[in-house]
Amino acid sequence: MHTGMLHTHTLTVVLFLLIYLIKCVLIWISPDTLTKFTAKTHIPEMIISSLFLITGLYLAYNNANIGVGSWFWVKLGAVFLAIPVAVVGYRRNNKFLATLSLFLILYSYGVSKTKSPRMNKRDLSEANFHQALQTNPELAQVVTEPMDTIVKGKNDTIIQVNPKYDLIAHGQSVFLTRCALCHGEDGKMGLSGAKNLNESRLDKNQIMELLMNGKNTMYSFKNILQEQEMLAVVAYVKVQFGPKGH
Ligand code: HEC
Questions:
Q1: CA of 217, closest atom in ligand 1
Q2: Cα–Cα distance between 83 and 44 in angstroms, integer?
Q3: Can you tell me the distance from the alpha carbon of 46 to that of 19, in angstroms, rounded to the nearest whole number?
Q4: What are 220-246's pLDDT values in tens digits?
């Protein structure tokens, strides 16, 4: 259900953008063609914009507690500002308002894609992670740095592993701060269409690939987690949730 909503939303947003791109070009170069275009696309546009709003509201309602940052409200504000600006702009044949509304729609699209009001991708990784560890003294005891000393040989490098390093504990701390918000501490929560991890049949490599690429609402962790954090969380997921009795 959720995945379907997400795909429909993305599709209608793209169609909506396309219609307004064409309309905006036409209002500048050929108002007559715009009148014809508007008449022809009136019904499809109504359907598309209704679907766009309905799916958007559904997603917003169901995602309400997944760390929506300020970007989300900026995006919502831009969309809801774009609508009246577009209505007035096209009704009065005002090119500037029409163009402004297009920019607002494009802007909200950009904000949504980058999850940042300035449309730059931030690296959320370490700051949050260490903050989360600090607020949980038990987890802060976990040694999360596997490399103790690096001894350089002539040709190859030998890496000694810190004997206090605990891969599973490290993985648990990553899981609780990064994954539990959708999957739940027990792996069963299933927020936003998240799969029940207890029923997952993925192997370590497949989970790693999923973390790198993301899938549907589960975003990519490529720029969020360091490699060691990913390895640890995958190990934790396998130990904690893998199919039992195999
Ligand atoms: C924003 C919510 C969200 C977060 C955060 C999240 N996931 Fe997911 N996860 C999902 C969704 C949604 C799916 C289902 C994707 C699909 O197949 O459509 C999923 C699927 C999975 C699966 C595959 C289950 C299967 O068998 O198909 C694994 C494993 C998994 N997540 C692990 C993790 C780990 C580990 C983390 C933390 C690093 C994490 N997830 C963080 C939403 C999330």
A1: 12
A2: 17
A3: 11
A4: 998 888 887 888 898 889 888 866 544
